[in-house]
Known about the structure:
- By secondary structure, the chain is of the alpha/beta class.
- The protein is built from 7 helices and 9 strands.
Amino acid sequence: MNRPEHGALIVFTGPSGVGKDTVLAALRELGYDFFLSISVTTRNPRPGEVESGAYRFLTKAEFEKLIADDALLEHAEYLGQYYGTPEQPVDRALSEGRNVILKIEVQGALQVRARRPDAVLVFLMPPSPEELERRLRKRGTETEEKIQKRLAASVRECAMADAFDYRVVSDVPELAAARLGEIITASRRK
């Protein structure tokens, strides 16, 4: 029996509001097939978000049990909420030969680097701080206080971009997606 080629593990991160979801949607439109890991979080769903989308929503106690059971590939606290990636679905997809993208926070990305040295870390940079602020405000889902916290966090996160294998600027989504696609293709060939 032919075993499928092992997939590439891509860690995709950047500041809140930089356009990660937009770039990933453009990547799919370019024809790239990948498994997007579903994160678990203790934050409340945003308007229109559903349980089976990008997140599974857990209580703090449920999340802490996953930590205790060592069932998370990574986890981090961001603005007072826990976020993490269950390890089992990621390993299953990789063993099936699928490319896996973890869309996670910067802290979690660095944890993955420590735990999975074969992971390729990609940091999505905003075109400018002003554009990032405009995008956050355009969402219309955050209070002024949360916007200011996210902007302050983005400064700290962008300062850590040099720890990543690749930096991609999120100016035109299709161009950023094409660059990400090139990175995936190159990583798969390693």
